[in-house]
Amino acid sequence: MLSVFKATISPMFVMFLCIAIGYMLNKKQILPDNTAAVLSKLETFVLVPCLIINTFMKNCTVASLKDNYKLVLYALVIILLAMAIAYLLSGFFTKNSYRKNIYRYALTFGNFVFLGNAIVPQILGEEMLYQYLLFTLPLNIAVYTWGVMILIPAGEEKKNPLTNLLNPVVISMGIGMFFGLTGMQNFIPDFVATSLNNLSACMGPLAMILTGFVIGNYDIKKLLTNVKVYEATALRLFILPALFVVILTLLGADKTTLILCLFAFATPLGLNTVVFPAAYGSDTSTGASMAMISHTLSVITLPVMYTLLMFLF
Fold it and tell me: How far is CA 171 from its chain centroid?
């Protein structure tokens, strides 16, 4: 049990160190003010797509889809349940309608893309990343439809949510599946394959540096004073993931599905609750507080949760 904890906590400390580097780069003004916007676009449009394409073209076959289709179904059940629970609980945190949506998003989605994609191969092995990406497919669809819609303040123009599905994550999955299912990956030049591998390796560290840089824009003392944020963080990192694992167990899910669910839902809050309010001139302090506190605490909570899961199941 102790060996599992040690193996899990090491990548989390690497993640935390990268966050600290990003924070110091901001506070010392070593990088320009627009660094967060540049890194975010680099992650979204280059590094994450490279990781997804690389993983799917190597692992996506007709046989693997048949073997793993239940992952998508289990994830669909859990994400719908998470959305319903978030709606019920959000009213306990605030009476402000837009801030309720911030909490709804925070209680529904963790940082399952940037952080999840980074730590899953380090802790579980690269072969599990493919299954993790399949499991998080319904989460990605929910993020880019319902998630985006609730983060846009009332009165602002909202696009058809279905158009949001044409995003780098979904498009990359489609490209990777095409190469994997058709066998076209065997004809990709070596320099292209090497580039995909190298760019994929950059995704995790740069995402955490980005997180630290964004947090560096705020006064740490002020971010630590909101008691409600700690309650939401406890739900985000421990209570809800544990509930979802229990529910999947009752539904007959295997241990692999339970592990993937844990890493998808026990991750800390991402940066969308900072980016979207900032884009529309709304208050970003709630989202920034949850991002900072949840990322810091997840260094311990995620290894503990994973260790308990491996011990109990």
Answer: 17
Domains in the chain, ordered, with CATH? 2-312 (1.20.1530)
Beta-carbon contacts of residue 6 (< 8 Å; ≥ 6 apart): none
29-40 residue pLDDT tens:
999 999 999 999
The pair phi, psi for residue 285, each rounded to 5°, is -65, -40
Q: 227-234 vs 285-312: helix axis angle to the nearest 10?
A: 30
- How many other C-beta atoms can be found within 10 angstroms of the C-beta atom of residue 249? 16
pLDDT tens readout for residues 77-119? 999 999 999 999 999 999 989 899 999 999 999 999 989 999 9
Sign of the C-alpha dihedral computed for residues 213, 201, 237 and 2 taken in this order: negative
pTM of the complete model: 0.91
User: What is the Cα–Cα distance from 240 to 73, expressed in whole angstroms?
Assistant: 19
> CB 141: neighbour CB atoms within 10 A?
21
- The confidence score (pLDDT) of residue 158 equals 62
How many helices and strands (H and E) does the chain possess? 17, 0
Q: How far apart are alpha carbons 78 and 248 in whole angstroms?
A: 8
* Closest to 234 (Cα-Cα) out of 288, 280, 286, 301: 301
Quote the Cα angle for 285-213-172, to 5°.
Answer: 100
Judge whether 172 and 53 are in contact, CB under 8 Å: yes
Q: Select from 38, 112, 107, 37 the least CA-distant residue to 270.
A: 112
Kind plus residue range of the DSSP H or E element containing 299? helix 285-312
Nearest CA-CA partner of 70 in 237, 236, 261? 261
* pLDDT, average across residues 154-170: 74
How would residue 159 be classed by pLDDT, with cut points 50, 70 and 90?
Answer: low
